[in-house]
Design brief:
By secondary structure, the chain is α+β, with helices and mostly antiparallel strands. It has ten helices and 20 strands.
């Protein structure tokens, strides 16, 4: 049954642990809830914000409107043959819970994305990626509902316009659709991707020479836990900045000045730079500002040391952008959704 609450503290609904209040708040547990909600005067007459796990959002102020938490659940196999399987997952399901479910079933394709915080519905919005894998590689389709009319639309891969941590849902369709479910095409026989150096090293350390999907998942979990803060302990939203892309000319210039530059060649001839390396080389690893800090193990992550306000984190991020630009002439871009 639909329930709309008033003046709710969102501290427990964002992984940064930032205190911010919204005028109205509701949770959608079924499509019927959503269809009822969109006819309600509070929903019609106020600004709206849809959240899932709150793992990629920074509140810099109170939200004067209605926050809708997507709690749509469910896991379903909708197609399978001898080699592949297509699974349909509710947008409100835990992403890591989904990954573990796939591993238990023997479905290959998401193991490199283990321990990423947040919900399944956010995965195509961000085109999440880690350790050599991006969502667009396994994405089949998603079902979404227009927040004004309630009508359902199925988005195929091409319509999502996936890019690096980008999709159509972050731009032209931002806050226009409630994602109901996401379908992924996975393999039924292990075909693991261990091209990322850290995974290879971790498997070698563990003495594993013929890894399966659980071995890869376990390795990724150990890597992430060794260098990334647990949001349940230290407020954060994971990677705060995107890895910037530069021209070959800019890369070659930087390589002369900074021989240890960490970069990866791209198919278009450009290079992707490691933002964490740039931030660390700018002397900012562990740097603190009013309760916010650059994480002391992974400079790509900004953290709430306990009492930081969203504005403090935002000011810190602006300082990081400026220091990196001053040193390297490279503009970083925030990955986190700023409210």
């Amino acid at each position: 049954m639909l329930n709309i609450a008033e003046n709710i503290n969102l501290k427990g609904y964002n992984t940064f642990g930032i205190e911010a209040f919204c005028t109205y708040f509701t949770e959608v547990n079924s499509i019927a809830d959503f269809q009822e909600l969109i006819t309600h005067p509070v929903f019609i007459n106020n600004e709206r914000l849809i959240i899932g796990g709150g793992s990629n959002i920074l509140f810099t102020k109170n939200f004067n409107g209605i926050v809708l938490k997507n709690n749509l659940k469910g896991k379903e196999i909708i197609f399978e043959d001898n080699d592949t399987v297509v699974v349909k997952i509710g947008a409100g399901e835990s992403w890591h819970g989904f990954v573990l479910w796939c591993i238990e079933k023997g479905f290959c394709g998401v193991e490199n994305l283990s321990l990423i915080p947040g919900c399944v519905g956010a995965s195509p919005m961000q085109n999440i990626g880690a350790y050599g894998v991006e969502i667009k590689e396994i994405f089949e389709e998603l079902e979404a509902y227009d927040i004004n009319t309630g009508s359902k639309k199925v988005f195929k891969k091409e319509e999502c316009k996936f890019g690096y941590r980008e999709s159509v849902f972050k731009h032209e369709f931002k806050n226009q659709y409630l994602i109901g479910s996401v379908s992924f095409k996975l393999k039924k026989h292990a075909d693991v991707n261990v091209s990322y150096g850290a995974i290879t090293s971790e498997l070698q350390t563990a003495g594993i020479t013929n890894p399966g999907i659980k071995d890869v998942s376990d390795a990724v979990i150990r890597i992430r836990q060794s260098k990334l803060p647990d949001p349940a302990v230290t407020g954060n939203a994971g990677s705060f900045f995107k890895n910037p892309e530069v021209s070959a000319e800019k890369y070659n210039q930087l390589k002369v000045d900074f021989p240890d530059l960490v970069a990866y060649p791209l198919a278009n001839g450009n290079y992707k730079l490691a933002a964490g390396w740039l931030i660390e080389q700018a002397g900012l690893k562990g740097y603190q500002h009013h309760g916010a800090a650059v994480h002391n193990k992974q400079a790509l992550v900004l953290v709430n040391m306990g009492q930081a306000k969203g504005g403090d984190v935002m000011e810190l991020s602006a300082y990081v952008l400026q220091k990196v630009f001053d040193k390297f002439g490279v503009k970083l871009e925030r990955e986190v959704n700023i409210i």
